[in-house]
Amino acid sequence: MKESNDVSDLDIKHIDPTLYNEDLAPLKPQDRNWGAFEIFNVWSNDIQSLFGYTLAASLFLTYGLNGWAVMAAIILAGVIVMFLVNLTGKPSVKYGIPFPVMVRASMGIRGANLPAMLRAIVGIFWYGVQTYFASTAVTLLITAFFGTGNGSTFLGLSGVAWVSFVIVWLFQIAIFWQGIERIKHFLNWAGPLVYVVMLVLMIIVWYQAGSELIPAIGTIFSGDGETSGSSIAAFMAIVGTMVAYFAAVVINFGDFTRFVKTERQMKLGNLLGLPLNVAFFSFIALIITAGTLVLFGEALTNPADIVERVDSLPLTIIAALTFFAATVGINLVANFIPPAYDLANLFPSKISFKMGGLITAVIAFFVGALWLSVISQIGVPGFVNALGAVVAPFYGIIVVDYYLIKRQHLNMQELFSSAPDSAYYYVNGWNTRALIAFGAAALFSLSTVLVPALSSLGGYGWLIGAGLGGLFYYGLMRQFKTAPTYAEQKAS
After folding, report:
1. Model-level pTM?
2. Transmembrane stretches, by residue range (predicted)?
3. Radius of gyration (Cα) for the chain, nearest Å?
4. What are the tens digits of pLDDT across the range 275-297?
5. pLDDT tens readout for residues 420-455
6. Which residues lie closer than 8 Å to 360 by C-beta, 6 or more apart?
7. I need a surface site. Which of 6, 53, 141, 431 has the fewest CB within 10 A?
């Protein structure tokens, strides 16, 4: 089956309601209005969350490495992720399609539902958890003005905490119900604001620490801490940890780049938003962490703890609003948009992007409400982390398929066709070779989570799983320079 090179005509000629709706359809270049700034803010909101700050700050303290080596490892991770997302983002810039449509080319028109649903489950779970964490910032704000209430709790949450949780949940629904443009505007506002407040916090801590700050930085940079294993192993563990932090967005980055006009803008946004942004944000984290060592006698890595120790009502108000914006921002980027598209791909005729988002929000409400009292206590996060590891091989499969097998050419008409002789129908809509490659690679990436003997590989298990997925897929598919039809695969 001959592949089409023409991307000027992205109108789908024959509508198959099991594969098509307007949210999944190719977005034409004239209908796109994202540029480098919007892509930069996708990463800003991903990095500048409460967890992102805590992770960056803790890396300076955990591995016993010289601080400059930690900075180098963090920047290297940013460069690696930039390279990875440039690969997954490019086809969606070219064709204007989201991740669940893109993955049809390698997994088959029906097989695409497997990676889409695994990604959706992970996204929905963490959407609920992050909604809870965002609500803690609102709780901090309400408590600063009105106190903690009478102290009674339900499912581990006080009355103020429940009010805060519902406020955040409704706020997020209000944003996404107005569409992707409203989400874009929120990200464009939240990203720079977080930077401003973090800079202000850094200046306050620096001012209060005074002349003792530089020696404290020297202490953190000395690398005198306990080191387990070699320095190279510690360096690679930091790189792997940071790459794994971004892994959720790496696979479905096409969900964002389909709105970008040119590949050049995508690459510029990734350059500014990843290695440069990560380096600058990590530097801020380092200065603040060193300042807390001077001011409080211990290195604090949680921004909420720092604000509480500083004990300033204006700072509490500003910080609470910022933590709220940062956490909602990462929630929309990493945990809302992907499952909204993934659920729409499952039943396109019945589920739109908005409806997929609403389903995500409803399920996530119960996850967030039960997080403190139930879910965090029974090991469910381990299950979800295992699912995240399982998703890793799909990255390698997608990239190898598009660049080495399909040679960067997809047939848009046949991505939305369920005809048995169409290019991506394979065997009853499933590419059995891709399933084998996925299964073999997933066994390894899953074992890094579940097998204690391989726990040392957990930091970079995602990278190895993705590499194995691509390697196995190429070995099984290299004889097909375009996707085989059903008849060709059956004959083989």
Report:
1. 0.86
2. 68-87, 124-148, 154-177, 189-209, 229-253, 274-297, 317-337, 358-380, 386-405, 434-454, 460-476
3. 23
4. 999 888 888 888 888 888 888 88
5. 999 999 999 999 999 999 999 999 888 877 787 777
6. 120, 123, 124, 127, 336, 339, 340, 343
7. 6
